[in-house]
Design brief:
Blueprint lengths: L6 E5 L4 H12 L3 E5 L3 H13 L3 E4 L7 H15 L4 E4 L14 H29 L3 E6 L12 H21 L4 E8 L14 H8 L10 H12 L10 E4 L13
Parallel strand pairs: 1-2, 1-4, 2-3, 4-5, 5-6, 6-7
Bound molecules: nicotinamide-adenine-dinucleotide.
Nicotinamide-adenine-dinucleotide binds next to helix 1 and helix 4.
Amino acid sequence: MEFDGKVAIVTGGASGIGEAITTELAENGATVAIADLLEDVGRETARGLEARGLKAKVFPVDVSDAAQVESMVKSVVETYGGVDILVNNAGIGQRCAILEMAVEEWERVLAVNLRGNFLCSQAVGKEMVKQGRGGRIVSIVSTAAENARVNAGAYCASKAGILQFIRVLAQELGQYGITANAVGPGLTVTGSPLREPVSETYLGAFLKEVPLARPGSPKDIAQVVAFLASSKADYISGQVIYADGGYSAGKLSVRD
Ligand SMILES: NC(=O)c1ccc[n+]([C@@H]2O[C@H](COP(=O)([O-])OP(=O)(O)OC[C@H]3O[C@@H](n4cnc5c(N)ncnc54)[C@H](O)[C@@H]3O)[C@@H](O)[C@H]2O)c1
């Protein structure tokens, strides 16, 4: 299988899109470290995969905390002998107009989404360089990285920041055979109890801008991540692929 013998760290891999990524990589042979804030949920996800003969284990971490990230990566490397794939998926949303946003909200969103991406990419990148066998870094952004959305100022800024960050990562780590890419989900219905379900009004308005006329599924996103982590994407780096049903192609509602 594609990922036989490979070790992958999936941040936020316990639930939602991250759980689908964990499953996709494990089903294709990877040993997956579920690096999540929620240890219990991660343990349940790992247990479900282990029951199917797949390999996964939870490594609790808050990705915004440098010391925790360092010790999580150390512990994955000690447990499995190395790391080949990092998926930066952990992220939090927000709903607040800029003029009303508390600085604490701005800082928390940036800390988890952007600083977390930097901390994990740096810690895992160092290990990959030390190992000398290349590696793959795939970060989950959002259509919001390029399509501004009201009430999501910090979120949009964090995702746009990741996009430019992975381009620099691609430039700096290419010499070590490490690629860095991003996947941008459109509206994705995960059924995760952690996330407030989207309202019918929001869903209806959003889908009017989606040529394929349906929300994404976690598997839609996970398959693109697996592609970018696979040998089929050996020569792709510094890129973003939007898995959004065509949403970011343009404004569907603007017609002649
Ligand atoms: N669902 C969507 O419509 C959508 C659309 C575009 C982009 N995204 C992005 O996809 C990613 C996953 O989103 P989701 O919808 O599955 O969210 P989710 O809330 O269902 O899952 C996020 C996971 O990340 C974990 N997490 C949160 N903060 C963490 C932290 N500080 N440290 C470690 N783990 C942490 C959570 O425990 C959870 O398991 C996020 O980066 C999100 O911004 C989601």
